[in-house]
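Let's practice the habit of predicting before peeking. Look at the sequence and jot down your guess about where helices and strands might fall. Then scroll down.
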Amino acid sequence: MKFLKGFTLVSICLLSAFQSAIATPTSGADTIFFGGPIVTVNANNDEAQALAIQNGKIVAVGTKAAVIKDWKTSSTKVIDLKGQTLMPGFIEPHVHIILTSMMEGLWVNLSNFTLPYDTMDTISQKLKAQLKNVQAGGWLTGFGVDPSRTTPLMAEFTADILDKVSTDVPIFIINQSGHIGYVNHKALDLAGITDKTPNPPGGGIFVKDAKGKLTGKLVEPPSYLPFMAKIPAPTEAQLLGAVQKTMKGMAATGITTASDMSVGANLGVEKEVAIYKAVTANKAAPVRVRGYLFAESMPKGFKAIKPNEGDDRLRFIGVKFISDGSTQGLTAALNKPYAYPKGTTFRGNLNYKDEDIFKQAKIYFDQGWQISTHSNGDRAIDQTLNNYAKLLAGNPHPENRRLRIEHFTINNPEQVKKAVKLGVVPSFTIGHVDYWGEVFHDHIVGAERADRIDPAAAFKKEGSRFTLHSDSPVSPYGPLRYITEEVTRLWQAPPRKVLGPNERVTIDDAIRGVTINAAYQLMADDKLGSLEVGKQADLVILEKNPRKTAPEQIANIKVNETWIDGKPQAW
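Done guessing? Here is the structure:
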């Protein structure tokens, strides 16, 4: 309570010091909001009394009296918030929209983010129950198996176990991390994968046992491709419907802009670009999309899409690489061995040799693409930062290229400082702390390394930015929950504990991680991410002000409306 009272006092002081920002009126505003806190997320984290919109842009932010006086006409729609809170629309900087839509609407969803954990038997029963829905010649496909959240710990599928579900229907399951897959023997046969099939480039592994026999486990997305090629593709109508449904789900959590970090990874670059163009045509989508093309899916010499191609509703801005695997999947590349199983010397694997990923990244960097690299383990982070230093050599303004590191999960202080020096902005899968905090801390990497996961406070201390994301379908999307997870850093499993207390940040810092910092990361901070004059009117209306809500309750705040370009979006 003392914290909340102090926070209220600070807010009042900020409001009294806030100077109204008002453009020169040329005609009346289309819409004016007042009657509730307006959280601007500007440089001073000011709150305003009123906001005016004209032609999809913000034209005034300030006191109610000034905004009404200068911008209200007989045709202006005046909205009394009646105590609700107006904020910038949330920006999801790292999600997989098409993959999420497939998992949510077209595949068997095996994800379990509640307690108790599943067992291999309960998961198998879920799969068996879906066999009746598989059409002749079809596959049983699923997503969300997670050995690190299964009883017993690290129990996982093999081809033999999946054969107990079916030997007639091919089965293909993707692990919750997205970096591991499981197939039965029928799927191996149809895909033409044998004990002698070489591993694919890009880090893919067809896992074999000590005798050299395929186990049915797959590591990294390149190993999925032979199976994906055999799985009957959904119709265009099914895909478009699934993507639209997922976008509406995102809008319902307050997201107004989402960045797909692997365009082309599922169905090929050209097909996925076409899907996005169809879904966003005529401004029909309830969220804006920023796209990063998946490097492994781009044909050599690919130039069909140019850097920054698109408009404010759909724009392709980057190329994404995956340097290692999943930390909870025990495939991320670490400098020191995992703590699980006890006594192991395994450190995970890099997906590329240093020189190989640098050469590929430089091609796209020189073309003008923003480069993003998935790097979970500290060994992968070392590789990425070293290559970024070479890419930026001689560049006096590295912040202009805004190179990204995705996840930055297992790290050390020197890596934080180097990233800041290079102008690199990390994006954290903050659900790691919530859903996997206990297993990281007590089993997978041990307390010391686990406490540094998602080092938001360390980046803040160095004067740099960070962003928060879901990596959906890896964890559920919902920016208000990210704020709770970042501020409290409580893990889910009982007894609940704080993972790395020193890495907690303030509510305002966490809010910036899903608004203005995320806009900066997506090269859009001149247009999005805060409620300031001249910016696009992307808004979210909340039942409560997160700045004055107990941190653990912010995730439960109801989202009442989302607006894009000054218009409410249908969910």
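How did you do? Residues 1-17 have pLDDT under 50 and may be disordered.
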